Amino acid sequence: MIAPENDVQAQTLAMQAPIAARPSLWNKALRNRRVMAGTAILALMLLVAVLAPWLGTVDPALIDVSARNLKPGELLSITLDDGSAVDHTAYFGTDNLGRDVFSRVLYGTRVSLVIGAAVAMISLTIGLVIGLLAGFFRHLDGPVMRVMDALMAIPGILLAITLVAIWKGGMLTVILAIVVPDIPRVVRLVRSVVLSVREEPYVEAAESLGAPTVWLLIRHVLPNTVAPLIVQGTFLCAAAMLSEAALSFLGIGIPPEIPSWGNIIAEGRALFRVHPHNIFYPSIFLALTVLAVNVLGDGLRDALDPKMHKNL
Amino acid sequence: MLSFIIRRMLALMPVLLLVAAFAFLVLRMVPGDPAAIIAGETATTEQVAEIRQRLGLDQTLARQFVIWISHVVRGDFGESYFFKLPVMDLVLQRIEPTLALGACALMISVVAAVPLGVLAAFRQGSRIDDMVMGLSVLGFSVPGFVLGYALMYVFAIQLEWLPVQGYTRIADGLGPFLARIILPASALAVVYIALIARITRTSVLEVLNEDYIRTARAKGLTEAEVLVRHALRNAAVPILTIIGIGIGLLIGGAVVTESVFAIPGLGRLTVEAVLSRDFPVIQALIVLFSVAYVMVNLLVDIGYAFLDPRIRY
Amino acid sequence: MKTPYLIKYSLAALGTALALTAPAVQSQTIKVVMHSDLKVFDPTVSTAYIVRNHGYMVFDQLVARDEKGVVKPQMADKWETSKDGLVWTFTLRDGQEWHDGTPVTAEDCIASIKRFNQRDATGLRAAPFIKTYEVVNAKTFRIVLNEPYGLLLDSLSKPSLAPLFMMPKKVAETPAAEPIKPEQVIGSGPFVFKRDEWRPGEKVVYVKNTKYKPRAEPPSGLAGGKVAYVDRVEWIAIPDGQTALAALTNGEIDMVEILANDLVPLAAKNKSLVVEPAWKQTYFLRPNWVNPPFDNPKIRQAAMIALNQEQILKGMVGDARNYKVCYSTYACNSPFYTDAGMGAMVRGDAKRAAALLKEAGYDGTPILLPHTTDLPVLNNLGPLAKQQLERAGFKVELAPSDWQSLTMRLRKKEKPSEGGWSAYMSSLDLNDAQNPIDRGSFNTNCKTSFLGWPCDDKMEQMRDAFARTSDPAAKKGLAREMQERNAEIVTVIPLGEYAAVSARSIKLEPTFKQPLTLFYGVKKK
């Protein structure tokens, strides 16, 4: 599900960890062209998501059977409950129930961004905790890592769809189903940071002086996990948005009343040849957002990786 | 070497056992009585009880697990709820298309991506490098089914060069087989190409910046010799890693691609099984896919050992 | 020595390829994508339309209805009734064989009828009237009744859900609760199920039954001569509608049984395809009497008033040529059609429905509507109904699910919050909506009614009377009264008729008007 090579890269980054990301590196990161581009597009998407109701949209769930399958740019006339009629341009056309695709795509931004962010944050949090525990407590390490290996052995999408099959459908289920296969990767990453930091002489010294484990964790390990985790997080976010689209495509994602880019595409797939606008617009938004997040992650990783720093 | 292989295989046992445990628990995690689910909606209470007893569902969980495992290692995953056929038969019927799809996608990816990655590395910083990197990020960002439909639309529908859907078994003709497999394999390969190209570029870059390369160049070796004798060899390790980890991606992608192109493979079986809550099939697929993944990675590890004499765990 | 091996292999492959192409001229195959995948093989146990269609391929009926609905002999050569109407004697045609070569006998027929009467709703209705079955000789048998039953022939000729097919005794002795297995599919019909070529989820293969003896008269409805003009029929599974259409356009398959409505314009442009409305069905909603709020008849009525047939048809079908508003619980082409009692119904009168809700004291309990997401024919029903009901003041929750899980959910009587349901929507073949007995929704027997569990003695009495009388005028009157009663108690809400459009290659020529998808009587050029 997640781009595995970023796994490797992120781990490489982690192994450089003792040279903790200095403030100057962060500045460099922010000025990196890719980071700026990715952030700009994401900010735009965020604005769209927040301001959706005021951007010329109508109720995304409003069905109008006399306005089915309108082409982009056509007018539709909406009759409100009190009988008055409002004219509205369907910038992206309408779907086969007469719902305005433009409104659905814009409101769908919310869902997709929420899913991406939620999956990233939850995976990172859970993975961080488990990784810290596994890295620090030797006797936990073995069993935990075996479990993580087992989870990684099951292909992500199979695990996700099995979980959706077991639990009831819905947004929370989809989020959790995408989170579970991602946790092992975060755990691997965090654990490798912990292990490498522990080898450092100053940490060994602190341990032998009796410093409490928790303090060691917070003071030395956590700061070194921040950079790789942020990079990992961006890739988790991008992959989660694509996974949601795939799950919706297969019919087991977000229920259609809540528009998400994935399920707009899924519903439009049956008519792709006659009414491509149903797939085209959400695909563009999805690809653009995922691209932005990936580019952002790329840029961050390049900027925060001291080794690469040498070459740029 | 042999002891290395044996040690690795032993280390895999606990992992496989855990996967099996998870697959076993899947049916029991579903709300409701497994015996009733198997018996179907029209069964009487006696029939449900009979099924419960026959399948040993009244025993302790641990005992059931042992019995289940003993069947599984013999390849017996029970009967599909919906087709009323042994699960293994269903799987065997559908395995060829998925294997063929995966193998072709893998071949296309490596053949396309490695040269691209090498090119980008050698021309680091140039337009070509940017283009390859740009295209690869794009490759990760487009959903697989959109790619599938796009390819189908251009090559099968507009240009009519290739058939639209379906799968022809190799035994039924190599020509038709290739004609049908090429579009889905390409759709599936795109993400893989993006991945392999990047990692190739990165590894080759790392190698190119090593001192011994400078030495080689100073000694008067041509770029081609530098490439083949040093860069590729050393870059092979991460590339192999990706191939191993990427099997998971291929399987995931196959699920979607088989849906789009109507290929009767394991991917489609997965979707059908999940949609109809056909748990014996779901369990079998979890176990089988995981075993495949683990085996491939074992092969990758063995490959490392060959390629890099320094690696001996 | 690699090269010779390579040459040998290539030659072999070439040869095989040539060999495979050679016979194409002789053997004719029809490849079709049906509306669903065949998983169960027993048309008596399963009420899925795909299984019914499979039944018509491999099995045959004792008596069958022609295009006017008149019961005609099919496997039977003739039948006679005694003067008091209590003894019915059936004589089979000569020379009929099962697919395994054994002859068709009277015992086989009796076993098949017995099994049907234990399982099917119409058969269950007939069962109490039957005193005994008697074998007269290998070709003849008798059904002896306790009292006259006007619907015996209707029951024996039941065309759909589930039809009565004749099966060999050893197969028909399978308990009625268990579906017959694929290896037991031995019929006497015009095609033979090729079990060794069946690939679940991929294709089902039938070959022509060369030993089948069609009747002499031309086919009409489900009766008459069933001639298989092609040698092979393959049902191919292509779940994606567009891929199926593309395959049809490319000539890879010959027919798509149901084409998604919005793809019809695309197919219609193609001159090598015949695109026409084929399968007539009707949408309906069935409320659950067990759970609030639909345990209150007034609230059920409010729903019937709030829903809007025309809007639903427009939303589901789109093209007005393919749908028909029909304000009746019987099919518009049925001899029992009437619009009695339906004056205010299903016209989307939100105001009137809202007033009725208030009067009934609706407290806002939400209606849980399971909503099918994996069948394109059904999947927009949920959102459409929700909007219409909400306009009248109902609170509606959609519960998306796949069809299989939905059918399992429907068996539950628990409250919606515990996995139950308030109402469900689906589609019914018009062949099954012809009269109050076939229309299973009117079964309001408090003990045996199904899915929705309506309970109304008055309706049951009318149904019983309908079954017993043979007077057409009386029947019509009763049918009308039953519909009026339904408008009061609401066991089912009819949501409009439509024709699912099918697309086929112009090479396929049906030789008669088919009441459902059949492959006998179809020629391929």
Structure characterization notes:
The complex is a heterotrimer of chains A (312), B (313) and C (525). Chain A contains twelve helices and two strands, in the order H-H-H-E-E-H-H-H-H-H-H-H-H-H. Chain A has 312 residues and is mainly alpha-helical. Chain A has one domain (24-54, 108-308): MetI-like (MetI-like fold, Orthogonal Bundle). Chain B is an all-alpha fold. Chain B has helices at residues 2-29, 34-39, 45-54, 61-72, 87-122, 127-141, 144-158, 174-208, 211-219, 223-261, 266-275, 279-307. Helices cover 29% and strands 21% of the residues of chain C. Chain C has 15 helices and 19 strands. In chain C, helix 12 (381-391) links the parallel strand 14 (367-372) and strand 15 (396-401). Chains in contact: A-B, A-C, B-C. Chains A and B meet through helix 1, helix 5, helix 6, helix 9 and helix 11 of A and helix 1, helix 6, helix 7, helix 8 and helix 10 of B.
Brief write-up:
The complex is a heterotrimer of chains A (312), B (313) and C (525). By secondary structure, chain A is mostly helical.
Average pLDDT number of chain B? 80
Gross morphology of chain C: globular
Total number of β-strand segments of chain B?
0
Helix content of chain B: over 70%
Q: Please count the beta strands of chain C (DSSP E, at least 2 residues each).
A: 19
Number of helices of chain C: 15
Biggest β-sheet strands, sense, barrel of chain B: none
| Rg of chain C (C-alpha, Å) | 25 Å
Instruction: Determine the oligomeric state from the structure.
Output: heterotrimer
Instruction: Report on the biggest sheet of chain C.
Output: 9 strands, mixed
What overall geometry of chain B do the principal axes of the alpha carbons give?
globular
Give the SSE string of chain B.
HHHHHHHHHHHH
* Average pLDDT for all residues of chain C: 86
Proportion in β-strands of chain C: 15-25%
Largest interface: A-B, 47 and 52 residues
